[in-house]
Amino acid sequence: MIQNFSKILDKAIEEIAKLPGIGRRTALRLALHLHQLENIEVEQLLSAISRLKSELHTCQECHNLSDTPVCTICTNPKRNHQLICVVQDIRDVIAIEATHQFNGVYHVLGGIISPINGIGPEQLTLEHLFEKINNNPVEEVILALPTTVEGDTTNFFIYQNISDKVKVVSTIARGIGVGEELEFTDEVTLGRSLIGRTNFETAYSKNN
Amino acid sequence: MIQNFSKILDKAIEEIAKLPGIGRRTALRLALHLHQLENIEVEQLLSAISRLKSELHTCQECHNLSDTPVCTICTNPKRNHQLICVVQDIRDVIAIEATHQFNGVYHVLGGIISPINGIGPEQLTLEHLFEKINNNPVEEVILALPTTVEGDTTNFFIYQNISDKVKVVSTIARGIGVGEELEFTDEVTLGRSLIGRTNFETAYSKNN
Fold this sequence. Notes:
The structure is a homodimer.
Chain A: H1 7-16, H2 24-36, H3 39-54, E1 57-58, E2 65-66, E3 80-87, H4 90-99, E4 104-108, H5 126-135, E5 140-144, H6 149-162, E6 168-171, H7 187-195, H8 200-207
Parallel strand pairs in A: 3-4, 3-5, 5-6
Antiparallel strand pairs in A: 1-2
Helix pairs in contact in A: 1-2
């Protein structure tokens, strides 16, 4: 991977290899590919990346990404604004939107509480969440955070701050993935899926 | 992966996913990463990519990539200009340079003859190679092309055109990789390594 005949290629490899999950070998392959593309194709890529910095905003309401100051989910009058789904980051919004099972609005925390990584409540958008709940009628808050110790810690922290202000605080179901075999499921998940068992008729009506 | 709240994000995902080996999920991860970077970091990346198009040249002598009209390998007086190593593309130059075993110059074909992919001799830099060999004293041409049918076809084509003009035409050795077990080597490679067996003393003196 050592080459010393082009500083321009070296610099491109160095910059591309800074991207997450891209090593120097992949960076070289991408750099050579980019060099061989038509000018217009490279310009379109550069312009699209550039606009990510200059024109992509964080929604003032929910901290989701947005082309406008307030995102299209928060400004959609057909969505239930009294149902808030709290997620760690924008990828979770995309994942939940793809299910077509949720018609409320979101609140993106920008992370979860993780003392070991130096992330406390003040680094997240929690204050804004509490403020919204204090100032607006909210029926239910769904906590859709990772099922980890940090996720649980964040869940409890939020619950303590909002439980007396909203009717229902719920978390997404922990259980066995659809299509998974019981024998290959870890004990903790299997145990939780027993504790959180669902009435037969409810379970199947939800699927319809 | 469906999201419809940001056209800017969509466009960036679409452009990034056009790169080889990058799917839409990775493109999303990269787009979010780029959005979160500092302006200066994104500018450095964009500038490095942009220079790949605007400032990176193809060497007039060997068709390697170069920051100057003629590359630093071709302009290096310490290298043996009568020893030409013919390779498929620039990645092969980088790989061979990394071995520190070669002190000649290169000729990058830009591909190999492959009728099935519509690549004939005229799409490659073969004419230029023959012209160089006709007009300059060349001691040896090393053919370092892939050990495939297309590679062999290209080897024979080059050999027919240059064998009466250079003293030696050689190909890189086909054999068992250093550190590999015989029992896991395919028969063709093992067979070739027997046919191309090397005198014991020569083999070990080459390694020193």
